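Quiz preparation item.
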């Protein structure tokens, strides 16, 4: 009896954790911003035109334009967002994670090498062509790289969260104030190498 109660309590706590980690459910058809009269809304409210100019250029070779509730209030409560990315020839989107949502990437143009690593350290990678789709599970480290030296690649990503967030792993590890002693032991590197990595991220 005690084991059953403990098991039931564990499942209940896990359920609460899952609910808290996701976007809240709507109690109406859609969310209306404060101060807006729902009767005056039309199709314009559900339309976002910010991608008409494409993704902007970038100094690191990856131009992107995110579509989140910050710019598109109609997404509020929907639990989704998206992003348009343009990879210059040779550009790499460094290993990163999205802690709040899975990512589904669609290749609009060009080709892209992608990969994700599971909790056991296994790498799942593939070379994607125009029209291909790849899914990156929520929270797992992953990367995208355009190894084509002459052609750009364009992708659209959809996220299972209104704000999936972006955690740049090299910058968060080596651009932070984690003590050198921790990083040298974790990565089995000399303090000098750690300092070089820190310098590269700052």
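Solution:
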């Amino acid at each position: 009896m005690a084991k059953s109660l403990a098991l039931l309590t564990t499942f209940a706590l896990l359920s609460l954790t899952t609910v808290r980690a996701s976007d809240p459910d709507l109690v109406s058809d859609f969310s209306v911003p404060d101060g807006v009269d729902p009767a005056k809304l039309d199709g314009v409210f559900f339309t976002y035109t910010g991608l008409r100019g494409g993704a902007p250029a970038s100094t690191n070779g990856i131009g992107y334009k995110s579509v989140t509730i910050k710019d598109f209030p109609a997404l509020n409560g929907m639990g989704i967002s998206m992003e348009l990315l343009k990879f210059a020839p040779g550009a790499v989107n460094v290993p990163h994670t999205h802690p709040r949502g899975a990512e589904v990437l669609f290749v609009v143009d060009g080709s892209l090498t992608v990969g994700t690593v599971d909790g056991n350290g296994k790498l799942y990678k593939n070379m994607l062509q125009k029209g291909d789709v790849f899914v990156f599970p929520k929270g797992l480290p992953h990367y995208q790289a355009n190894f084509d030296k002459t052609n750009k690649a364009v992708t659209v990503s959809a996220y299972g969260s209104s704000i999936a967030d972006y955690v740049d792993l090299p910058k968060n590890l080596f651009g932070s104030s984690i003590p050198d002693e921790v990083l040298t032991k974790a990565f089995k590197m000399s303090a000098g190498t750690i300092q070089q990595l820190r310098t590269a991220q700052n």
